[in-house]
Amino acid sequence: MTRSFQRLGAAGLIALTLGLGFNGLAAAGNTDIAGVHYDATVKVEGQPLQLNGSGLSYKALQKVYTVGLYTKRKASKAEDVLRMDGPKQLKFVMLVPMRIDELGKLIARGIEANSPRDEFMRLIPSTVDMGRTFSKLRRMSPGDNVVIEYVPRRGTVFYVNGQPAGLPIGQQDFYNAILKVWLGKNPTSQDLKDALLDFKPAPLLDALE
């Protein structure tokens, strides 16, 4: 736990900052990963988004979850995704039983790891709000999904199995802070970052070399 969290003395932050140590493997170019299908396109607030990339996260040798990133247009650089306007979506599908607040802990730790100190301090209230939302939700089972969307003029919105979870978080830069957990300079996994930023299948002959 960081000293900044200790000084705040918020009990909710204690749980949020416990590390999970997930690792990821790339699955760029695939819409089907570990039995999970990601549609090539989805709609958020009526606007079509494309699957930018998708990947699989491991903890040790265990497959934990899959994740897909949807954006308005394809991008192979993190900074392009972060600068992109309009809606965005991250979709997680669980592969093992998991408490949803474990995902919140991973996000909180990743936000801190990828944010300058002053920026991180500004993000703490939104991070706490996210933790409160997740703390009210049940344990996840294999096949359950969590969707985190950015919706212009509303902010960051959470869904669990298609149902809204909590109120939108309106802080403008909070969604990008979440994206940086997987796309930032200190991502949960470099392989998973590469997978989310590259939805281009390798040519068949190259793959066989």
Features:
single chain; 209 residues; two-stranded antiparallel sheet; globular; disordered N terminus
SS class: alpha+beta
Report the helical percentage: 25-40%
Mean pLDDT across residues: 84
Portion in strands = 25-35%
Q: How many runs of DSSP E, i.e. beta strands?
A: 12
Sequence of secondary-structure elements: HHEEEEEEHEEHHEEEEHHH
Low-confidence spans: 1-21
What does the main sheet amount to?
8 strands, antiparallel
Rg, nearest Å: 16 Å
How many DSSP H or I helices?
A: 8
Q: Tell me, what's the shape?
A: globular
Q: State the end-to-end CA separation.
A: 46 Å
What do these coordinates show?
The relative contact order is 0.20. β10 and β11 (155-160) form a beta hairpin. α4 runs antiparallel to α5. The protein is globular, with a radius of gyration of 16 Å. It is an alpha+beta fold. Mean pLDDT is 84; it is low at 1-21. It has helices at residues 3-8, 11-16, 78-83, 100-113, 117-135, 174-183, 190-196, 204-208, and strands at 23-26, 32-33, 36-37, 41-44, 47-59, 62-71, 88-94, 98-99, 139-140, 145-151, 155-160, 163-164. The strands form 3 sheets. Strands 1, 4, 5, 6, 7, 10, 11 and 12 form an 8-stranded antiparallel sheet that branches. Strands 2-3 form a two-stranded antiparallel sheet. It contains 8 helices and 12 strands. 35% of the residues lie in helices and 29% in strands. The longest helix has 19 residues, at 117-135.
